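ugh ok fine here u go
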Amino acid sequence: MKIMSQRKISKIILSFVLVLISNTLFAQLWMVDPLEAIYPDKNDVAKFRSSWTIDCAKAMDAEVHVLLKVPEQSKFYINVKLDGKEISDLVLSELIAVPVEQNTGVDSRTEQFLGKKNPDVIRRAPFDIFEVIKPITDDELVSNSVFSAYKITIPAEQLIEKGSYKVSVSVKGQDISYSGNFHINVHDVHLPDANDSKFFYTNWFNLGKMETQYQLERWSDDWFDMLHKYAALMAHGRQNSISIPGELITYKNGTFKLDEDKMLRFINVFRAHGFKYFESAHIMNRGDNDDWGDAELKVALSKKRYYTENGKADVAQLITLIKNFTTRNNLTNNWLQHISDEPTAVNAACYKDVAKQLKSIFPEIRIMDATNARESLAGAIDIWCPIINDFQENETFFRGREAKGEQVLVYTCLIPGGKWLNRTLDQEKLRQVYFGWGAAHYNTGGYLHWGLNQYFADPYKQSVVKHHAPGAAANNFLPAGDTHIVYPGGEGPLSSIRFESHRLGIEDYDLLQLLKEKNEKKYHRIIAKLFKSYTDYNIEVKTYRKAKKQLLKALK
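structure:
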């Protein structure tokens, strides 16, 4: 009996191993967490399965990636059913790969800048990675690489009631027949509407790149139609602030003029999509030669130096114009004024004088800038936006500013690299998610990035570009994806996996704020499971999903 028992146990173990192998090494379809990096040439498929489960709140789309391995140029169809019924408004998208030519550097830019290897990347460059999300309109699909990848989105409207849902996925073609399952657990928790989000989020938008891509004439009806498409995508990502085109304020023969009709029409496009904040163009700069060593700022439009060329008079005229416009159109609480990008200790005294002048004319105006200085700017800024390493390393200073009623956001750009959170293409997708968790942990107000669509090359063919600043050294490159997080599509902009990951983190932030109101101890406890600082966080996707489930359960 003992021998028979051992044989039975051996058979059971063997059967289990065979099933495991068939679900991994020999499987040709895998249901993959959207936060996992996947590639067109090779993947560690042993960690993926043909079935995957997600926990989400009401009003959240449920999403999964389908990784498929079939012979190149194979033709096939993907069929999706929700609880046995085909879905009419399903969004099926193809994932398109883009190149990563160099790895992000250990402190900034790319590894070439310091010549040091960065250990905190997901893969050694060069490689291609699935990134762009392109909705599919054709029924028949064709594989173009060793691995193909697709995204299935079950709209929130299909997941109204709490409970469990089963999504069945089948792939059919000549000599192709694979299937997988996607399980969705909808919790009795409602995701706050993006309009009610407490998270400030802005990506700077390059209108010229949009116009070039789609051959649009600025301010034409077709231009505004495309603008709506970009605004809709940004709003989907929970962006709620947009920069005002600088050209709407002009300078000629000593007089500034604001084109009120065009400015209102532009603003109303974004208002229609729930945007709450409107950022004025920088009124000052470091001059045409971008001189970081010059202590005197120049008026951007008139090019006059602030002190020695009476630029102060221009500033007075300009801010009076803005005050009158925002007051007439009930925009005082929505207007954010940039003075000069990344002020430093060198030009801080001039920056403070400009800020003081602005407040003397328009006391209610809120001044916001990405900053490279601290103590020398104290008292001049209402909404601080330090780079994340500056914030983390000087948290005491920024807490002091908050105590005086000022707000603090953070930003990243080509800096920082290494282990720091950023959103370059060779970093874990969880780093984008954790911008929301970091804001919850530090009780900061949001995030700014300069690159929505600031392309300097075709983003499908080149992700790493030479730094565009005058005098940039030959080894000075912008890291992969720093210039952009959306992509130009045939009919309008396309989202990316990084953009969706960032959105997920902001949704988490808004859910965490609900928990903070309900149970602050549990709020801190759940955050601590994943995030301790901008360089200390958990990169295991399964651990993140477990914590997310705990968050949803805590909110019931």
